[in-house]
Amino acid sequence: GAGVSQSPRYKVAKRGQDVALRCDPISGHVSLFWYQQALGQGPEFLTYFQNEAQLDKSGLPSDRFFAERPEGSVSTLKIQRTQQEDSAVYLCASSIGTGDNEQFFGPGTRLTVL
Amino acid sequence: GESVGLHLPTLSVQEGDNSIINCAYSNSASDYFIWYKQESGKGPQFIIDIRSNMDKRQGQRVTVLLNKTVKHLSLQIAATQPGDSAVYFCAENPNAGNMLTFGGGTRLMVKP
Questions:
Q1: CA B73 distance to own-chain centroid
Q2: Across the interface, do B99 and A48 touch by the CB < 8 Å criterion?
Q3: How many CB atoms lie within 10 A of CB A41?
Q4: Is the bond leading into A8 cis (omega within 30 degrees of zero)?
Q5: Taking CB atoms and an 8 Å limit, are A108 and B43 in contact across chains?
Q6: Do A40 and B96 make contact, defined as CB atoms within 8 angstroms?
Q7: Do A105 and B100 touch (CB under 8 A)?
Q8: What pLDDT, in 10s, does the model give residues A14-61?
Q9: Which chain A residues have a beta carbon less than 8 Å from that of B5?
């Protein structure tokens, strides 16, 4: 796998359901980021991992949002009790180091909450 | 696929012309800036970056200019091609090594 992959690509949930979104970063990349992109807008930061440590979660909009990266590779973003305003594309990015390194983005997961 | 940029400012250019996309950034402490290209249904793709100790950087067919005095970035694309049609975002890194703050984006449409 050459790039960042995300699954599922599309997710439809009923309001109140829990969802889990997966990110497979580029192998060996230390840093992993989650962003939320509403339609017609730029991505907005949610949270950042350095290996397995979640160093910044200041962008998570509520305590319904939870992210983990237990082994410092694959990451999961979980949203509990989804609401319509959670509908967006969720992007994952990884970078090789911890400084000003290029972030490589996955294709995103489009979440639609009905 | 996902549609990006339904309500974004649009720049329409003729194939072969040069394109200039502008961006104002917000944080005077930012020291790293990136331009991304996003096609429908895809994640942002890195184009070019620049650090705050530079005011110009050139890549293949692209040039980024940074004016720190007025907190302005521009992306110049030479000899624009139909494959350049996409939404372009500038991003700044206000905290080195951590998250990016993205601008609102501009849709570039290239007419053949």
A1: 8
A2: yes
A3: 20
A4: yes
A5: yes
A6: no
A7: no
A8: 999 999 999 999 999 999 999 999 998 999 999 999 999 999 999 999
A9: 40
Q: Are the Cβ atoms of B46 and A42 closer than 8 angstroms?
A: no
The answer to whether B19 and B77 have CB atoms below 8 angstroms apart is yes
Amino acid, single-letter form, for residue A23: C
Minimal-distance CA residue of chain A relative to B98:
A48
- Which residues in chain B are closer than 8 Å to A12, comparing Cβ atoms? none
**Residue A91 touches chain B, beta carbons under 8 Å:** yes
C-alpha–C-alpha distance, residues A101 and A94, integer Å: 9
Q: How far is A64 from chain B (nearest CA, A)?
A: 21
Asked if residues A97 and A30 have their Cβ atoms less than 8 Å apart, the reply is yes
Query: pLDDT (tens digit, 9 = 90+) per residue, A48-93?
Result: 999 999 999 999 999 999 999 999 999 999 999 999 999 999 999 9
Name the nearest CA neighbour of B85 among B4, B2, B23: B4
Distance, CA of A38 to CA of A94 (rounded, Å): 20
β-strands B32-38, B19-24 pairing = unpaired
Q: Name the region of B55 (left: φ>0; alpha: ψ -120 to 50; beta: rest).
A: alpha
